[in-house]
Design brief:
about 325 residues, alpha/beta, Rossmann fold, UDP-galactose 4-epimerase, domain 1, 2 domains, 11 helices, 14 strands, about 40% helix, binds nicotinamide-adenine-dinucleotide
């Protein structure tokens, strides 16, 4: 059984990937400093948990010596775009500087396979209807820049040290485990679907729409929602291809379908049967009107096919919303 070190595995996307890795016959080991994630995930999923920081080379060295790690999946990062504008140093430290420490330790310890959580935010303002891997990468905030920097570092580490990587650029990760056992819980929450569900469950007074005069069909922003288990599946498919072919890869991961903010709100009302207050407020700086993925490359090369519809995404997230432990 292959041991996979999942850094940031106590967080949202990491924990769902740990679950799927286990179900797919791998032995995932969570490594997380718990700055954001939840330790009970390891108990619930019955996997080994190591408390440690991404930048702690000594600790990582010990783990690599002891655990015979085949590949590292790296989810750990700070992820709030707005905060990254206010506090860029925090983002460059955690999302770039500490990642170089991890990569250097991997090279020193002879662990040469890396799977990296990147983001649609590396592209900046879209110049095409659907964003494929050839789209220009001109990020407009420190969060997106920090992720693009790591993508570039990975290219150089492959050339110089033979470290192979799979870069996966997610669009809007959403949904939860269908049994509602693990789910999305960011503090503060900034993602659209959990925010709408909090309004539906009465935990939030209303849901705010940031601008309704975008050049889209109903004036609100259009986004591409991809279920967290579809993302998890892409990690396993990408890792397997990298291990088999010993080459670095990169893919954009989305459903390929865009939904406006108003459409998502209506879908939540339909799925939950709840009505709630919707307010339109000022636009936020740096929100592109439309962000939709072209994931044909992942479909063709990995045989990846997103399975979950928007309705299923909302259904699973609603189940979690009603059962959430935090
Ligand atoms: N959520 C999305 O929609 C989305 C979209 C695109 C990309 N991403 C990327 O996916 C990854 C996971 O996102 P998420 O939503 O699961 O975030 P999350 O905050 O739920 O999980 C991140 C985990 O990393 C851990 N962590 C952070 N810094 C650490 C450090 N220095 N050392 C050890 N552990 C550390 C946290 O404790 C947390 O458990 C991130 O890299 C993010 O940039 C997320």
């Amino acid at each position: 059984m292959k041991n996979i070190l999942v850094i940031g595995g106590a967080g949202y996307i990491g924990s769902h990937t740990v679950n799927l890795l286990k179900k797919s016959g791998y032995n995932p080991i969570i490594y997380d400093n718990l700055s954001k994630g939840y330790k009970d995930v390891a108990e619930i999923l019955n996997v080994k948990f190591i408390k440690g920081d991404l930048g702690d080379r000594k600790k990582l060295k010990e783990v690599f010596e002891k655990e015979n790690i085949t590949a590292v999946m790296h989810f750990a990062a700070f992820i709030e775009v707005g905060e990254s504008v206010q506090e860029p140093a925090k983002y460059y430290e955690n999302n770039v500087v500490k990642v170089t420490k991890l990569l250097d330790q991997m090279v020193e310890s002879g662990v040469k396979n890396f799977i990296f959580s990147s983001t649609a935010a590396t592209f900046g303002e879209p110049v095409k209807d659907k964003i494929d891997e050839t789209h220009q990468q001109l990020p407009i905030n420190p969060y997106g820049k920090s992720k693009l920097m790591v993508e570039k570092i990975l290219e150089d580490y492959d050339t110089a040290y033979g470290l192979k990587s799979v870069v996966l650029r997610y669009f809007n990760a959403s949904g939860s485990d269908k049994d509602g056992i693990i789910g999305e819980s960011h503090i503060p929450e900034t993602h659209l679907i959990p925010l709408i569900l909090q309004a539906a469950s009465g935990k939030r007074e209303s849901i705010k729409i940031f601008g309704d005069d975008y050049p889209t069909k109903d004036g609100t922003c259009i986004r591409d929602f991809v279920h967290v288990y579809d993302l998890a599946k892409a990690h396993i498919l990408g890792m397997e291809k990298m291990l088999k072919e010993n080459k670095s890869l990169n893919y954009n991961l989305g459903s390929g379908e865009g939904f406006s903010v108003k459409e998502v709100i209506e879908k939540v009302k339909e799925v939950t049967g709840k009505d709630f207050k919707v307010e339109t407020v000022e636009k936020r700086a740096g929100d592109p009107a439309v962000l939709v993925a072209n994931s044909e490359k992942a479909k063709k090369e990995l045989g990846w096919e997103p399975e979950y519809s928007l309705e299923e995404i909302i259904n699973s997230a609603w189940k979690w919303e009603n059962n959430r432990r935090y």
